[in-house]
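Now for my pick.
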Amino acid sequence: MEILEHLPALLLAGSIAGFLAGLLGIGGGVVTIPALFLVFGQIGIPHEWRMHAAIGTSLAVIVATNISSVIAHHKKGGVDWGIVRDWWLFVASGSVAGSMFAKGLKTEELIYFFAILIALLAVKMLLPIEKIKLGTVLPTGLLRFISPAVIGFFSAVMGIGGGSFSVPYLTLYSVPIHRAVGTAALAGLVISVSGGLGYLVGGWDVESLPAGMAGFIHVPSMIVVAIAAVLFAPFGAKAAHALSKTALSIIFGVFLIAAAVRMLASV
């Protein structure tokens, strides 16, 4: 199988993605997407659909990583189940809409979209603006529904689990960062399942995709990356609860900047 040639790269990407899923409450898409994009160029996925396949496969992997991450954070009391009960329907609806929207974008447009948004998010985590809060409790009324839908939409377009948006959002409303990270992992599970289904359906009628594809999801790569990611997610969760609030915020911000640079470099 041609995928065996790329096994080391996929295993490394999965291991890093899993660790970051546990550490930061993200699905690791910002790690797996660049790796998958490069691998998919070698296995015959057309350039016009290569980024779509990388994002769809990333979301499928995130299902596995976030299950492992949620379990690890829940054991440490780091998941606010009430927030996700309020969010899940709107997050899911937004992520399905995002996956459908992404099909109409070109690969380069998806890359710029991805890089610019996460660079902006990094600003909140890196600058000393902890005293800036939008409130002491999460919004009620219309914002209660719109915010999670927007998070789901952009997360699906970018192929991430949503932590890159939901962690900064939750901390702006005074949710402690360790609890925000754990809660983001659970919200990301909803995003990855619903968004992944959107990419599965969206790519089903594309005839130029090679064998091994289920819609925009490359199944062999998904399996390899997911196994490695699940094994390493608990180590990331353990590390997260051992770090200070300031250290975790800085790591998150630096990570987002690095991911933005890496994606722009791939254009």
Notes: Strands lie at 213-214, 217-218. The longest helix spans residues 47-75.
